Each structure stands twice: as structure tokens, then as C-alpha cells.
Amino acid sequence: MAKHTPTDRGYAVIFENEEGTNVGICTAIANGRPSDLFAVHTRMGSIKIEDGIEFSTVGKIRISNRPVAVHGEEDVVHIRNTTPAAVRNIAIVPS
User: Fold this and answer.
1) Domain of life of the organism in this record (predicted)?
2) Is 14:68 a contact under the CB 8 Å cutoff?
3) Which distant-in-sequence residues (6+ apart) come within 8 Å of 37 by Cβ?
4) Comparing C-alpha atoms, which of 48, 90, 94, 93 is closest to residue 12?
5) Residue 63 covered by a domain
6) How many CB atoms lie within 10 A of CB 62?
7) Domain-located, residue 69
8) Which pLDDT tens digit goes with each residue over 11-50?
9) Does the CA dihedral 21-83-53-50 come out positive or negative?
């Protein structure tokens, strides 16, 4: 049976430590640093990032530029956009 974790929403924080690759989720970015970390996926085998998600590098960590949806499946963490592609691609035309 596959092991799944609940989907968390927030800023994804990718970092390495002696245990391997980890993905944290925080509620905010303050002064360019993660703030209020509330979940961490540890020792992940791989990370799958949906197209269109951008990250900034701060020291040795990568932080998503906007909130995303994060969930684990076996030893893989999935980082997805929080809005459907159809909504993200709508052009706003001034009236």
C-alpha cells in the first residue's frame, strides 16, 4: 500500500542536511527567510516540481516564490501550483 501524506499549502523550502534532501513548508517569508515552518518531509528520494513554479536561492536553501501545494508519496515529494493551469494562464485585459 502506498504511503501518502496530507497536502500542505505554503511556501516550499528545499534544504539539505546530514539526513539528505528535505522539503519544509512555511506560512510566510520574512526578510527573505522562511518563517513559521509547520511541516517537513525528510530524507526524500526525489522531488517533483510542477512546471511554472519558481524558486529563489538564499544561502544553501531554495524557497518557492509563492505559496504552493506540497504532498509526499512514498519517497517522493510533489510540489504543485495551488491554482489550476486554466486559471493561471488567463490574460487580464484592461477595460
Assistant:
1) Bacteria
2) no
3) 13, 24, 25, 26
4) 48
5) yes
6) 17
7) yes
8) 999 998 887 889 999 999 998 889 999 999 888 888 999 9
9) positive
Q: How confident is the model at residue 3 (pLDDT cuts 50, 70, 90)?
A: low
Report how far residue 69's alpha carbon sits from residue 25's, in angstroms, rounded to the nearest whole number: 9
- Which residue is associated with the grid cell 516550499? 12
Instruction: Specify burial of residue 15 (Cβ count, 10 A radius: 0-12, 13-18, 19+).
Output: middle
Q: Is residue 3 part of a domain?
A: no
How many domains are there within the chain? 1
